[in-house]
Design goal:
The protein is of the alpha/beta class and 475 residues long. 37% of the residues lie in helices and 20% in strands. It is built from 14 helices and 19 strands. It has a seven-stranded parallel sheet with strand order 3-2-1-4-5-6-11, with helices on both faces. Strands 14-19-18-17-16-15 form a six-stranded antiparallel sheet. Helix 4 links the parallel strand 5 and strand 6. Helix 1 packs across helix 6, helix 3 packs parallel to helix 4 and helix 7 crosses helix 11. The protein is globular and about 65 Å long.
Length: 475
């Protein structure tokens, strides 16, 4: 079958794609920016890419045709606090227009469980998108999931951050809300299982794991599974706004996502039926087993995707390609070069920078800069990196975004997503003479941008000198 995969760069989309290819389907991946679609050459040769933003005005030029099944995996919860529901509605309306042109027969939409009468804004938006998609020409199958647990999922990473960084927690009362987590493997099983099934057309199904537990129990089970001592004390006086700040500063989540998550976590998320589980004969994975499977992937360095690599965790929502050409005019630079002996070792050092390994020199200063960035609403350093050894275009790397990861061409280009009065790039390049070049470029905005750069010169002197020397010599 010919399948359209929207949200192909997202957490679920990246997990679903190899399964679709293994089934022998012809897959068209819909992405907003094809330059950051970080896939290996072999996978790229097996797919077609359609560059489209469903928030833009409808434009059928280059629209694929004769699509059998379309997966709708587009969400905007991390993009906005106030307007994400309008963005999601607009995307759904535009998708309906495109689906008519593509002759889509079935749309499979991954939504969220909406059984509580007091829905959060997030879940009201998901419900609204379902109604909009049902108005389109194709038959629609809706899968409503609770919290998705897997290596790289936002929920898993937040629980991981909380449990492994805070042995004692004073938590808001929403941690006593019941939820029904589901393993990412089971989500993929359901997404594949409903393909082209007439008994699933124009139907909505709840999907969940076998355990109905509270958020507090989720953290306690995580701690027990990981052998961590954890004490949780619940108080009724923590407001939603304080709860959002708590999540934002302790975990790697963005402030926008934290607000929307807290709003949703006050609502019970439990399946009302097991129809689809029985129809597809699925034996769901337990929450504890899902945690163990996630860590198997992490320990084996096999994490396929992470929510942090999505542009929704970025300051810049689209078209990163405009930043690939580092400007010269009106810019301030810190350029350093050093002769190296072993280019392969140095290249490995460059490709493993950041995350748990750190930035080779003055890590406490990097951490301080990340903390200051968090104070001003930035992404901070907590995002880390998806893989400790591999980088793709578009990956999040602490408070940078990978613009170009060309290991064969011996060049890594990063773009700053921390809060700065301007735009900043950091480039590592090894030339044909075995010289390592490290170039920090800053394009200031106004007088404050220049004042910022000059105030940072003493720190740059120590950090950038130390960093290039360590990269060049560390084995």
């Amino acid at each position: 079958m010919k399948i359209l995969l929207t949200g192909a760069n997202g957490y679920v989309g990246r997990r679903l794609l190899p399964e679709l290819l293994n089934q022998g389907h012809e897959v068209v991946c819909a992405v907003r920016d094809k330059t950051r679609f970080g896939l290996d050459t072999e996978t790229l040769s097996l797919i077609s890419i359609w560059e489209v933003d469903f928030l833009d005005e409808f434009n059928p030029i280059d629209c694929p045709i004769d699509i059998d099944i379309a997966y709708y995996l587009i969400h905007s919860m991390s993009s906005s606090v106030d307007f994400f529901d309008k963005m999601e509605a607009k995307s759904a309306h535009n998708f309906n227009l495109y689906s008519s042109c593509m002759n889509v027969k079935q749309v499979i939409y991954l939504s969220g469980i909406v059984n509580d009468p007091k829905l959060s804004k997030h879940m009201m938006s998901r419900n609204s998108v379902e109604k909009i998609l049902m108005e389109g020409k194709p038959s629609v199958t809706v899968l409503k999931a609770g919290i998705i647990v897997g290596s790289g999922s936002s929920s898993f990473e937040i629980i991981r951050d909380l449990c492994e960084k805070l042995p004692i927690m004073i938590t808001p009362k929403w941690v006593l809300t019941k939820t029904q987590p589901i393993a990412i493997r089971d989500v993929i099983t359901y997404l594949i299982g409903v393909q082209n099934r007439i008994d699933c057309f124009n139907q909505s199904f709840d999907i969940g794991g076998p355990n109905i537990i509270t958020y507090k129990q989720m953290m306690q089970l995580y701690a027990k599974t990981r052998g961590i001592k954890l004490a949780i004390f619940t108080i009724p006086v923590m407001t939603p706004k304080l709860s959002s700040y708590w999540l934002y500063f302790v975990t790697s989540t963005s402030y926008k996502l934290a607000i929307n998550l807290v709003d949703s976590m006050k609502v019970e998320v439990v399946c009302k039926d097991k129809r689809l589980q029985e129809m597809l004969d699925v034996k769901p994975i337990s929450y504890v087993d899902a945690i163990k499977l996630a860590f198997q992937k992490i320990e084996q360095n096999l994490v396929i995707s992470s929510w942090k690599d999505s542009l929704t965790s970025s300051r810049f929502k689209k078209d990163l390609s405009q930043y690939v050409q580092v400007p010269n005019f009106g810019c301030l630079k810190d350029s350093k070069s050093i002769k190296i002996l072993n280019s392969e070792q140095v290249l490995d050092n460059i490709w493993t920078i950041g995350g748990d390994k750190g930035w080779y020199y003055g890590n406490w200063m990097w951490q301080l800069r990340g903390f200051i960035d968090k104070l001003f609403g930035g992404v901070g350093l907590r995002r880390g990196r998806t893989s400790p050894t591999h980088l793709d275009n578009g990956d999040a790397l602490d408070f940078w975004r990978v613009l170009l990861a060309d290991k064969e061409g011996k060049r890594l280009l990063l773009f700053a997503e921390m809060r700065v009065p301007g735009e900043a790039w950091l480039e590592f390049r090894i030339d044909e003479n075995n010289v390592l070049h490290q170039i920090a470029t800053f394009r200031p905005i106004g007088i404050f941008g220049r004042l910022y750069w000059y105030s940072m010169i003493p720190f740059h002197f120590f950090i950038f000198n130390g960093m290039i020397n360590k990269i060049a010599t560390q084995n």
